[in-house]
Amino acid sequence: KIDKQLDWTDADEIQDTLHEFMINLQNVEKSADESGLSYRHARMIKSDEARIVECGQIDFPETWGDRVFPAGTWKIATRVYSPALFSDIDAGTLRGCSVEGDAIHTKQPLK
Fold it and tell me: pLDDT digits over 68-90, tens only?
């Protein structure tokens, strides 16, 4: 399935990428006080506000709310420490966050 940035990849590539993300995140958290998450692409969330505590892929299609996510979808679990962030989540104004990362775009045939 093509994402909002008009990109796509397969589940194996997502798994390799999420493993590299977690390895790199450990290095970022040691050298800077960042969680690896951004708040509405406007600022980095500090590690004393929230931290990624789990990272993986779903094995089977799952429905969350009114959306269906295919097997292979990358998911993260985050522990929130900041009362302000938690308030935004509770109010529904913050429904997700972005992981910071780069990608190399290559052309591959659709399967």
Answer: 988 888 888 889 999 999 999 89
Q: What percent of the chain has pLDDT over 90?
A: 13
Cα–Cα distance, 61 to 95 (Å, whole number): 20
Mean per-residue pLDDT for 34-55? 76
pLDDT of residue 102: 63
**Three-state helix/strand/coil letters over 72-101:** CCEEEEEEECCHHHHHHHHHCCCCCCEECC
> Which of 88, 4, 101 lies closest to 44 in space, CA to CA?
101
Position 91 scores a pLDDT of: 93
In Å, how far from its chain's centre is CA 51? 11
**What are the Cα distances from residue 92, in Å, to 11, 14, 88, 95?**
30, 28, 6, 6
DSSP assigned state of 32: S
Q: What is the DSSP letter of 30?
A: H
> Does residue 39 sit in helix, strand or coil?
strand
- Taking alpha carbons only, the member of 62, 64, 25, 24 closest to residue 47 is 25
